[in-house]
Amino acid sequence: MKLVLETKNINKHFYKPKDFHVLKDVTFGVEEGEFASIMGKSGSGKSTLLYILSTMDTDYTGELYLNNTLITGKHHQELSVIRNKNIGFVFQFHYLLSEFSVIENVMLPAKKLAEKSHSEIKHDAHEKLKMLHIEHLAEQRASRISGGEKQRVAIARALINNPTILMGDEPTGNLDSHNSENVFDIFKRLKEEVGLSLLVVTHDEDFAKRTDRIIEMEDGHILS
Amino acid sequence: MINWKVILSIAKTHLLTKMKSTVTAALGVTFGIGAYITLVSFMTGLNGLLDGLVLNRTPHIHLYNEIEPSKKQPIALFDDFENAFNVVHSIRPKQSQKKIHNALPILNYLKNDEAVKGAVPQVQAQIFYISGSIELGGNLIGIDVMEEVRLSNFQDYIVEGTPEALKNNDNGILLGAGLAKKMSLEPGDRVQISTIAGDIFPLTIMGIYQSGLAEVDNIQSYVNLKTTQRILGEAENYITDINIKLWNMDKAVPMAREMEQQFDIKATDIKEANAQFETGSSIRNMITYAVSITLLIVAGFGIYNILNMLIYEKMKDIAILKATGFSGRDVQFIFLSQAMLIGIVGGILGLLIGFGLSVLIDNAPFETEALPTIKTFPVNYNALYYVIGIIFALISTFIAGYLPANKAKKIDPVRIIRGT
């Protein structure tokens, strides 16, 4: 199978408050259409790894490939374009822009990409919202909807540019079991229906068990 | 590649949802620019008025014959005493005529000079005003009325009557306001003039002249050039003074020296006559700019503060924008364009308020003895000040916005999202 995301010998140190070797020779890959989860105790470096994979953190050694292209060492400007186009990101907290409506929040990354016309983007955004069963919220202010709905809006936003891979940093960590289930189903459906690759950091063992592969981390190493 | 449409729409949303701070920031700029426009319009208007007061009344170059002792006494010409130490007591000015020699050819010559806007002849005469048994000493100045109107705004100082009326009446006189009051005379009345030689002439009062300077208005009156010549019993070429207006005032000094040489005559230039008047103007301008710049700096700090606060509030938004593919530069432009929008809106409002206040001042009553024709405060509506004002507004808001925007550019999204 083709690897969409691959790392080679990634090392990272935190220097404050004192030198701490947080990631040690991390080498792994995510295949196309794979739904992988990263598990590990607090401080095992799983979130740190995820932010390096997301290209937002560039302070590391080693090599990172996305679609077999070397990402490491590229300029910030290029990285933001890559992030915009190829990576969808869902956080533990929804992080919607509260002054904007739901549909505007979803449309924003596509407007930034500017590959499609305004009406096409709007159409796409409606499609994504429909797929996540929250189309009726489209014109609501992002600050006026419930937590579970916000997370679904965040997923729609992550999907708007049809990314290569969707990353999640404990996307269900702040949700009740019903909404967690909902989010898991959405991820599962994305993998099966769209063939999207997913990489999710989670504490939730039930969630992880149902993914294709669990990547377990401890003290900066990948165990399995 | 920068997607301005998206950036501006985000900036607009931020500004509109933070209406209160936006309005506060914009008002700071508005007051700064408004105050600048008002101040500068009023100050330069006033400067123009005061300069005009001096400049209109004072010719750029004044030619006349000065009575002075000869610089070279006759003994110096005598070879026998060449190496001796000569002492001459009680030097007196030499007998010379008051009239300018060859005045008419000089006038013709000056009128053809391209640097000269105009040259007007005057005849000054010492006379007495006789009203009943009262005799008042004074000056009578014969002028070319319409040329004076063209070159020195003469009509501004005629409080009653018109310059044309004087021009059309060879026996007319424009009486000084102080004289008219002393002798209780009004336009239409007659006044008798006595020359030093004792000849008496009746003249009709065509109007009242008020310069605002009491010592002038109490002794001075104007008549036609020919009238003075007739009163004095002199020919048409009898001219005591020539006043010259130049196109460019700065040339007055060298040209005055040149004329002294050329015509063998005394020439005073305007700088000699009013050395201090330029100093006043430049100091008033300095004050205007100092006050305006202070106001704008205060407004700039206001914008800086508000944007700084906004960036702290929007930390999460900035992180999420960066996570979804907006670059640091995009974020910087979002905040910078907010500052510029505040600057543009505040600046334009400031221009309007400044214009409104200027109009108000322009219509406020202002009456002064010195300027009989001025009824309201003077205001200078120069478009250049409005251009400077808006440029000021844009530059100051840009500087105020640049630092916070730069900070937003450098925010590390990972730190915000992970909450460390």
Task: Give the topology.
The complex is a heterodimer of chains A (224) and B (420).
Chain A: E1 3-14, E2 20-31, E3 35-40, H1 46-53, E4 61-66, E5 69-70, H2 76-86, E6 87-90, H3 102-113, H4 118-131, H5 147-159, E7 165-169, H6 177-194, E8 197-201, H7 205-209, E9 213-218, E10 221-222
Parallel strand pairs in A: 3-8, 3-9, 6-7, 7-8
Antiparallel strand pairs in A: 1-2, 1-4, 4-5, 9-10
Helix pairs in contact in A: 3-4, 3-5
Chain B: H1 4-17, H2 19-57, E1 61-64, H3 103-112, E2 116-131, E3 134-143, H4 145-152, E4 158-160, H5 163-167, E5 172-176, H6 177-182, E6 190-195, E7 200-209, H7 214-217, E8 220-224, H8 225-232, E9 241-246, H9 252-263, E10 266-269, H10 270-273, H11 277-313, H12 315-323, H13 328-363, H14 383-410, H15 413-418
Parallel strand pairs in B: 3-8, 5-7
Antiparallel strand pairs in B: 1-9, 1-10, 2-3, 2-6, 2-9, 4-7, 6-7
Helix pairs in contact in B: 1-13, 2-11, 2-13, 2-14, 11-14, 13-14
